[in-house]
Amino acid sequence: MEAIRMRKDGYKTAAATEAQTTQRLSETFDDERLRLVWVELCDSLREKDPANSERMMNLEVHISDFPKVEVAITNQLLERYMISKKHDIEVFLSHGLKNDDLKVDFRFAKVEEMESKGLTRSEAFAELLKKSTGVAALQRVFNLELV
Q1: Which one of 63, 116, 127, 141 is most buried, by most CB atoms within 10 A?
Q2: Are 52 and 81 in contact, with CB atoms under 8 Å apart?
Q3: Each residue of 79-95: b (16+ CB within 10 Å) or e?
Q4: What is the rounded CA–CA span in Å between residue 78 and residue 49?
Q5: Are 89 and 41 in contact (CB under 8 A)?
Q6: How far is Cα 128 from Cα 114, in angstroms, rounded to an integer?
């Protein structure tokens, strides 16, 4: 096996790249590991494209038929962006999950899968009171109201 050689500028030589690509990676992964690598992908995009990075962070990603990954997209603009970046997304996920057979499919999310609509301040406060007994207790003790 040929030793991997690095040039002074940090790039691998052609021989090293060829030797590396002959080894196929096929590790198994689960939804939890997939989600972690998806978050890494979104973080890596944050500097170049913060808006789409944040939108991608909120998407539902899961294994549909191993090693096929399904991403539920919420709107057409994001769909166009994701399709244009599909190859880059597959490469990033393949390296992160160590599986060269990984493929990504996009589909529109069903209404039930989408995050709830934006809430008004009073609706958000009411939801917070329902979810957090601590906040509800503070509200009762200090007689707090949203104005």
Answers
A1: 63
A2: yes
A3: eebbeebeeebeebbbe
A4: 12
A5: yes
A6: 20
